[in-house]
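Ops channel
N.P.: pipeline sanity check, posting one input/output pair.
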């Protein structure tokens, strides 16, 4: 990953405990690397009836646990930021399924991503919209799949790369585009191939060209590497000011 503008998640400043700092412009990334010792009965009881029902409908247990872990992380962090009990949070699905707090009036933007063994949640009072995506570094993306979301310029860049370097760059394209599309609320109903990502390791910069273009200056795109070996992409739109990124592991909440 050294050839990419990707920072270790652990290098970010920590979210202050016990109170969240109200000042500054920032995005907080909460993450949970859960393992075999997780008490899933306790996790399930913290969810609402609809979430438990959805978890029960998964065919594979690993998928049900990934879903429950993500929803538990989301409820725990939102409760921490809003002082609303976990069970009383009214989380609704907006257009294309993007979650939001019903009747939200305090301008909190948030987004969730989860995969087997790992969940990540981004939250901000300063970003207008926010998206996050996480994938294990071992995730393999087939060439046929890559052709569906890579732009012509990205495909040309990939053509000169081989092995781990190619896979790392391909995974960065995927997670960054997913985070952006989740932030805008369109998900993959939009056309990822119309987004072109430019990665500059020397300047530690990420740029995303969009078709149609227009608001590039308002967007912040970042890549982080979690200690668990997961790549995290975050896309946030602000008023143009710099955003401070912070992190904290869920286990450190209590």
């Amino acid at each position: 990953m050294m050839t990419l503008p990707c920072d270790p998640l652990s290098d970010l400043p920590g979210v202050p405990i016990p109170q969240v700092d109200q000042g500054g412009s920032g995005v907080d990334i909460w993450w949970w690397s859960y393992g075999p010792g997780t008490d899933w009965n306790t996790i399930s009881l913290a969810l609402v009836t609809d979430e438990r029902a959805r978890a029960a409908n998964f065919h594979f247990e690993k998928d049900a646990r990934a879903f429950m872990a993500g929803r538990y992380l989301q409820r725990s962090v939102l409760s921490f930021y809003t002082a609303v009990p976990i069970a009383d949070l009214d989380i609704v699905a907006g257009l294309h399924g993007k979650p939001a707090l019903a009747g939200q009036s305090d301008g909190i933007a948030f987004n969730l991503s989860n995969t087997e063994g790992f969940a990540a949640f981004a939250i901000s009072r300063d970003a207008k919209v926010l998206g996050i995506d996480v994938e294990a570094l071992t995730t393999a993306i087939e060439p046929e799949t890559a052709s569906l979301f890579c732009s012509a310029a990205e495909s040309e860049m990939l053509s000169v790369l081989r092995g781990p370097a190619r896979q790392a760059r391909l995974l960065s394209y995927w997670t960054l585009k997913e985070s952006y599309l989740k932030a805008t609320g369109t998900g993959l109903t939009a056309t990822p191939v119309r987004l072109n990502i430019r990665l500059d390791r020397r300047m530690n910069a990420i740029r995303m060209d969009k078709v149609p273009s227009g608001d590039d200056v308002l967007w912040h795109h970042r890549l982080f590497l979690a200690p668990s070996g997961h790549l995290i992409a975050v896309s946030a739109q602000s008023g143009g000011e710099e955003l401070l990124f912070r992190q904290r592991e869920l286990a450190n909440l209590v």
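N.P.: looks fine end to end. The chain has a mean pLDDT of 88.
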